[in-house]
Design brief:
With about 170 residues, the chain is of the alpha+beta class. Helices cover about 35% and strands about 30% of the residues.
Length: about 170
């Protein structure tokens, strides 16, 4: 049986989640982000699979967000959210902007996140729903622009020459 949480409690928990996410975006301490999940949480990521448990989530998020393109994302703000007290869920759209490649241009892609609240400020599940092709094309365009500007760093260049190759050349 699922515990019921009020819309106010879900909103407050999500507000704290977003504060932590903003702090992590600034300090890049992904362990703090992983600590927001229960010990037995699941993280469903459609391109990478499902991580089971906080420890597996921690290992995955540190690897993913310290490699390009995650390493070049500057924030993860929610553009909107809704709460569903009957399921204990918060559903939101998350923006994933990239750092400035050097000319002020902006590159970003969004995803839908479904968070299931467990109480006491912890989440028992996160599922991210997005179009991997859209993210790949955005990262490829960012790399192409950074290369044009002479600001493409080694991690982005390596991604561009391997994974990025499947997204074609920007026209």
């Amino acid at each position: 049986m699922t515990e019921t949480f009020s819309a106010e409690e879900l909103d407050a928990a999500f507000t704290q989640f977003q504060k932590t996410v903003a702090d992590v975006a600034d300090h890049r301490d992904w362990d703090v982000w992983a600590d927001q999940f229960t010990e037995d949480a699941d993280y469903v990521e459609h391109a990478y699979g499902t991580m089971h448990g906080r420890d597996e989530i921690r290992v995955w998020i540190n690897k993913t967000m310290n490699e390009f393109p995650g390493s070049h994302m500057t924030g993860y703000p929610s553009l909107w959210h809704v709460t569903d007290p009957s399921t204990g869920r918060v559903i939101c759209e998350v923006d994933n902007p990239m750092r400035d490649p050097g000319d002020g241009s902006q590159f970003a892609a969004t995803n839908i996140t479904i968070l299931t609240y467990a109480g006491d400020g912890l989440w028992s599940c996160e599922e991210d729903v997005y179009n991997p092709m859209k993210f790949g094309l955005m990262a490829r365009k960012w790399c192409d622009r950074a290369a044009e500007l002479g600001t493409l760093d080694a991690p982005a260049r390596q991604w561009l020459e391997t994974t990025g190759a499947m997204f074609g050349r920007r026209k």
